[in-house]
Structure formats: structure tokens, C-alpha cells
Design brief:
Blueprint (H helix, E strand, L loop, with lengths): L6 H9 L4 E2 L2 H6 L11 E5 L4 H14 L3 E4 L17 E5 L6 E5 L4 E4 L5 H10 L4 E2 L11 H6 L15 E8 L4 E3 L32 E9 L1 E2 L3 E9 L5 H13 L8 E4 L1 H8 L14 H5 L11 E9 L2 H14 L5 E6 L1 H9 L1 H8 L3 H10 L34 E11 L2 H17 L5 E6 L4 E11 L5 H18 L4 E3 L13 H14 L24
Parallel strand pairs: 2-4, 3-4
Antiparallel strand pairs: 1-2, 5-6, 6-10, 7-11, 8-9, 8-10, 12-14, 12-15, 13-14, 13-17, 16-18, 16-19, 17-18
Amino acid sequence: MEPATDPIEALRACLGSANVAADAATRAQYESATFQTEQRVSAVVYPDSTAEVQAVVALARRFGLALYPISRGRNWGLGSRVPTRDESVVVDLRRMNRIVDFDEQLSCVTVEPGVTFQQLADFLESKGSGLYLSVIGGPPDASVLGNTLERGDGLGPLGDRCESSCALEAVLGTGECVRTGMGMFGPGPMSGLMATGLGPEISGLLFQSNFAIVTRLTLWLARIPEEFQGVAFAIKDPAALAPAVAALRELQQRGVLKANSFALWNPQKFLASIMQYPFAADGRALASPEQLLSHLPPALRGAHWIGMAALYSASKLHARADRRLLRQLLGPHVARLAILGRSTASWLRFTRPFAAKVLGMDPDQMLRLLYSESPFLGHPTKFSSQSVYWRKRGPKAPELDPDRDRCGLHWVCTAIPFEHAHLAKHAAIVERVALGHELEPNLSYLNLSERCLKSFAVIAFDRDADDEESRARRCHDQMLRELSDAGYPPVRLGIQSMDKVTPADTTHIELVRRLKRLFDPLDVIASGHYDFRHAWMVSDGDT
């Protein structure tokens, strides 16, 4: 039989007709994000194995196709499923949804790209496992592998998942398959237990890059502690922020708080997670930020910051000591300090009305969020991701899908030193820029380490409201630029910002260009994705 001369027919011959879609309705889904995009998709393919991914790459090389791999397409606010390059073939890896291997004793699991946070949590529960994977604040059906490769942020121990993963399997732009870490020696007892192999380690080159399509990786899991306590607090006095931040840093330095175990939200962020924007009857926004914040639960009104944290303790005695240190160091600087452990959870169940008055929110919701179903213990949650509907007029759908429902969302993800002065300066920039574009400064911080915090500014808007789309894009661009200029560089980019960040080190840019040409000489995989090509020198045919 003669080989197909049409690329779509060749893909169908390779994967089967049911696993190649080129109809207008399907393509439109992959062209939609939470902001305006112009890229067009030529087809969508659904491979089921690493071998099929290699076959797709081979066809891309033969026909000059541009490929854009995604895992589940839940990258809301950063591009969802939309490719960086026009007329791409989207390689949707959702059918590769196998949990390949699991080891309870050595606390690791190997997954393919289609495995979701909810799927893995359900799997561990079904096994009666004493382990859990750190989860994100995003949707439960997001990809574990995809989020990890983007250096997504999990809550609790091993929350920096790119630092607690290994043994990547990846298909290069040449069509070759490479295995990193101890996986370089093939299957064996050590393949998923060490972050490095022998000699130069290339795993790091596969995170936030377009050098290859990663088809599996191994993640390390945290063990459920003997004692777990959820913490909530508010900071109402602006002067208390400095000593509170210093106390949180000391608690982490002393080992009471683990990395990725506390989040600090401004009140706009908290409000967006429990309700939609309270538009006036005529659809107009409220007259002032003060009017908006009056919709906070009574006990939290006047709060400048709202905090949530977790304590992981090895015994009841250890838990008591952690609790005592938390109250001693943080307690004097915060209001509404609540610590939920075994006994407190029982108290909440039997004293709901009083608890609602004291804590300022529904006690059942707080119990789930901070204790019984806490994301700090690996339980996927929709609490934070509900905020994608913040400015959407009309009720939100039972099943969240901001792309389908034309919700507006941009993320600006940066990093700052773990110091009050930097937090105050960073927050002031976010607030000034957002309010300058008549949008809310929706902001949170997560303790990546005892040295730095990750910051997440959300620009939420309604894509169907007059002028909000253009205002939000201008707000995003200005905020990203001003934060970078102030010394707070981005830690993650969306497709709307890939060409807006340029490293100062030109040697770094040139090295990325050379590596792209080495791993993917025909430039078939995700052109423009984290490769700074807008700053490449014009050489070797580059434009």
C-alpha cells in the first residue's frame, strides 16, 4: 500500500480514525481559553502509548507539522489547551491515563500524562494507602504530570513536585525516546527512587520546556502524619503584617511549618472563592473596594490578610508542642486564630452555630477545607478554582469549565523574598495596577521555602462584558512588566506572556536556542513555549 500523502490521513492510518479529529467543533474547543486567542488548530490527535507518540512525531517530521502536546488541557488562566503556534496539531494525551506502578513501602508512584489529581487520590484511597500526593488549588481533573512539568505548586510536604519526581520518559523532537535518572539503566529497583542517575542529569531540561513530549514520570508521595492540624487566621492590623511574616518564617525555619504548608490570601482572593462578584442590579460594578469587602463573612470584615496553614506532627506530644509554638510566635499578631485537630473537629461538629459566629464561615466547609478533606492532606478541592467565575455574570455551572463558559482569567505568577518589605512592595504593585484597570487585586502567596514565597495574582473578568477583555489584557501585561522590573521575576508563564519575558543573560538565551536545535532540530514540538525565541539571534535560519 502506498503511504498516505495527506498528513491528516496519515495520522488516521497511524492512530485510527476515532483518535484523530479535524472537524470544526472539536478544533474550536482547542482554540478556546480564558482570554482572547488567535491561534488556529489544524487537528487534534489522541495517542494511547509512547510508541504512538513516537509515530506522531515521525509523521510531524515527515509532513512538517507543528505539534502542541497537552495532558488534560486544564491550564486555566495560562492558555488552557491553546497552542503557542498557529495551525498546530494538538497532541492530547488524555488516553494515556494509566497508573503504571505504585510502591507503598518506598512511597512512589509512576503515572502517564492523562492521570488526574482526583484519579490518583481515589486510587490511593482504594488501596487503603497511608500516602498522598500534594494537590493544587486548581481543578481536580487537572493532570498530575502536566502540572508537575509546568512547576505547578502543590500544598504540603513534597509540594514542589518537580523537585520530588524522577525517571522521566520522553519522546524527543527527533522521535527518539529517552529515560532520565536511574531509568537510564532500564527498569530496576532503583529507577524511581533517586532524582539523578549517573553523569549529567537531563531531567531538569524537560520541565517548562519544549524539547520533548514527556509520556511518564515517577513521583514521590508523602506519608499521612500521625497528627494533622489545620490552621486559619486573619491579620486585621496593617502594622501586624511585618511581625506575622517574621513569625511564619521562623516557624518554617524551626521546622514547625513545612515548605508549601501555608497560604496567605488577600480578602479579594478569599471572597472570590466563596461567592461571585455582587454586581448591582443593572450589571455595574460596585462603587468602591470598601463596598465589595463588606460582603466578607462578618468575622473577617476588616481583615487585610487571611491565612491557612497545616501542621504535620509525628505524635500527640509533638502536635501539642507545634501548636504551642504556633500560638506563641504567630498568635500575638493575628486575629481569629483557629487550629483544627482531632478534638477541635469534634467540637465543630457539635457546636455549628457557635462555630459559625466565631470562625466567620460555614463550619462544615471550614472543617472539610482545613481538616477532614483538606488539600493540605492531598484531597483535591474546587474551593479555590471556583474563583474563575468571580466576574462572570450569571450563575456558575455545576461542572466548572471556564473555557466553555467564557470566563475571563489571567495569572501572573512571580516569586519574592520571604520578607515583609518585599511582600508589602509586591502587593502594592498588584493592587495599584489592578485597581488602575478597574479590576480586583486578587492575590495569594505560598511558602516555597524559608527563603522565598511564590505569588499568584489572578486577573478575573467577564469576556462578554464591554471592554473587560482589553482592560484585563492590559492589566496583565502591565502587572507582569512592573513586577519583573521591581525584581520579582515570573516563575510560570502562559501562552499570552511567552514573548513578554526576556532573560538578561544573553548567553542563557543562546544556550536554550542551541538545546532546542539539539533535542528538536526540525522544531516540531511546541514552538515558542518557554524558549525565548522572540529574543533569539537571527542565525541558522531562525526568525
